[in-house]
Amino acid sequence: MANLESLASLAAILILVLVEVAVLSSFAAAQLRPDYYANVCPNLEGIVRYSVKQSMVKSPISAPATLRLFFHDCAVMGCDASVMIISPTGDDEWRNQDDYSLKPEGFQTILDAKAAVDSDLQCRYKVSCADIIALAARESVSQSGGPNYTVELGRYDGKISTTNSVMLPHVDDNLDSLNSFFYTLGLSQIDMIALSGAHTLGAADCGFFQHRTRGKDPSMNPSFDAQLQGTCARQNFAFLDDVTPVGFDNSYFKLLQNGRGLLGSDQVLYTDQRSRGTIDYYASNQGIFFYDFSIAMTKLGKVGVKTATDGEIRRDCRYPN
Ligand code: HEM
Ligand SMILES: *[C@@H]1O[C@H](CO)[C@@H](O)[C@H](O)[C@H]1NC(C)=O
Asked: Does 148 contact ligand 2 (Cβ within 6 A)?
């Protein structure tokens, strides 16, 4: 009798353990934490912070290009640095038309930060490129005057990058298209709007917005229309936020209120009644924008995270090991 009872309780414990293992492994992809490298590379954040600072001194394009790189990394195949891979066959994400406009300065910022991390003997070959992109994106934001949010770490680098895997939103997408794209990443409309606030930094080539000028898009402010015609006659780009192009702030949302959003996908957030309230909110309260942006970046950073089973710690961010 006693034997049977202990057998039953042993079986119960076994089942409990099995269930726990199954639950834990199904969440393995979400095991990110801020102190992931505390033992192997205690000064990681300081190293990346200083390296990004130097990149930003070298080029005003570094911060915007690095922030955009993080989005394009996470949105395609997850945050696994697949966007960095250069394939000898030419089949890689970067060769897709939607990634071709990623600026070299962003890639260089990551390569330099990786070299700085690996020049520390303790850290060498232990920190993933995906985590360095996430950290460098945060530095690009905070060192431009934006929020200094905590970055979760522990991503592995992917081994695959293909041209056809690239699916990204486009400049003429309406609110429903933008929402459904971000929804596939597990992000809400609020997250999408907050993340669009990244367009407080950087620039876009005239090809992305020129078709809206000359009165073709009624949501564009006429004086902004005239201004852009002049800009594109002079040079091939315009700033996404021409009030403070290198400052991370909420002026992007104030511009939308005045019909001065550069891309169609920016201005539609104000034109559509369903998102206008959030634009007004962020335009009037930078602190709330910074808070929501930090949350949305953290959520974006969890998309499709790889583990030791399907990933690796890449030695050269441009090539799988
Ligand atoms: C909502 C959908 C989005 C669309 C349609 C979009 C589209 C674009 C386009 C067309 C450009 C100009 C590229 C060029 O001419 O070089 C651009 C630039 C930029 N995007 Fe987005 N984007 C979106 C969301 C985001 C998100 C979520 C982020 C980051 C969180 C982001 C960050 C940036 C940055 C920082 C730049 C400036 C890049 C530079 O100056 O090199 N974008 N975006
Ligand atoms: C962000 O916070 C860290 C840690 O407190 C600090 O060392 C760093 O200087 C801050 N960065 C900015 C740009 O304020």
From this structure: yes
Query: pTM for the full model?
Result: 0.92
CATH of 44-169 among 1.10.10.10, 1.10.520.10, 1.20.910.10, 3.40.50.720: 1.10.520.10
> Measuring from each residue's beta carbon to the nearest atom of ligand 1, which residues come in under 6 Å?
61, 64-65, 67-68, 71, 101, 103, 169-171, 178, 195-196, 198-199, 201-205, 208, 240, 263, 265
Instruction: Please report, for the chain, the start and end positions of each structural domain, with discontinuous segments joined by +.
Output: 44-169, 175-299
Chain segment 84-113, per-residue pLDDT in tens = 999 999 999 999 999 999 999 999 999 999
Query: Which residue is catalytic, options 68, 72, 155, 260?
Result: 72
User: What's the fold here for domain 175-299?
Assistant: Peroxidase; domain 2 (1.10.420)
3-state secondary structure of 239: strand
- Distance (Å, whole) CA 314 – CA 316: 6
**Nearest alpha carbon, ligand 1 atom 34:** 68
Contact in structure between 271 and 178 (CB atoms under 8 Å): no
Kindly report, residue by residue over 107-148, the tens digit of the pLDDT: 999 999 999 999 999 999 999 999 999 999 999 999 999 999
Cα 61 off chain centre by: 16
